[in-house]
Amino acid sequence: ELSVNCSAKELAQPKQYLTQLSKSLERYHFSAHEFTIELTETVLMTQSGDIRLAMKGLHEQGFKIALDDFGTGYSSLNYIHRYDIDCIKIDKTFVQNMLTNLKSERIVKLIVELAKQLQVNIIAEGVETESELNKLVEMGCSSIQGYLFSCPLSPPQLLQKIEYLKPRS
Fold first, then answer.
1. Residue 13 region, left (φ>0) first, then alpha (ψ -120 to 50), else beta?
2. Is the pLDDT at 50 greater than 80, yes or no?
3. DSSP output for the chain
4. Contact at 8 Å (CB) between 124 and 141?
5. In Å, how far are 51, 85, 139, 146 from 142, measured between CA atoms?
6. Contact between 44 and 83 (Cβ < 8 Å)
7. Could you report the per-residue pLDDT of 79-122, keeping only the tens digit for each?
């Protein structure tokens, strides 16, 4: 599954954005079910009623929607309440501070519990160490993103890494 960031500019014209996504999927022979569209709280803050239209269209096409950088905006809970979110991504600042800052640790734990209660997926961003990974697993977060497993890669580098990691028979 791949994630794609979506900007406020793209969502300002939801019909054009949805058409562009559909054409790209068709051109490259992908399915919307293979993608998650990531929206930040800032994007949701800047939008009018068009955001509902865009999110409805994304879901109808089969995309999942993630709330990225959760906890850094002004009213995170309001967005989870108002919009149909499939996934919450815990902002890396909380993850990177949770081993040395009790408040950050408690915030991460609360966000993981919130996701469980709302029955949405949870991903911790910015995981760089085994200790962070272990703490997250202990809290119940099983999906992570970060340099622990890989730095950002170009498409050819990613394909090479996937080929290298494939089990040999």
1. beta
2. no
3. -EEEE--HHHHTSHHHHHHHHHHHHHHHT--GGGEEEEEEHHHHHH--THHHHHHHHHHHHT-EEEEEEETSSS-HHHHHHHS--SEEEE-HHHHHHTTT-HHHHHHHHHHHHHHHHHT-EEEE----SHHHHHHHHHHT---B-STTT-----HHHHHHHHHHHSPP-
4. yes
5. 30, 18, 9, 13
6. yes
7. 787 888 999 999 999 999 999 999 999 999 999 999 999 999 99
Q: Give me 73's structure tokens.
A: 């905006």
Structure tokens given for 28: 């490259």
Answer whether residue 152 shows pLDDT above 90: no
Residue 114 near residue 107 (C-beta atoms within 8 A): no
Separation of alpha carbons 9 and 167, rounded Å: 42
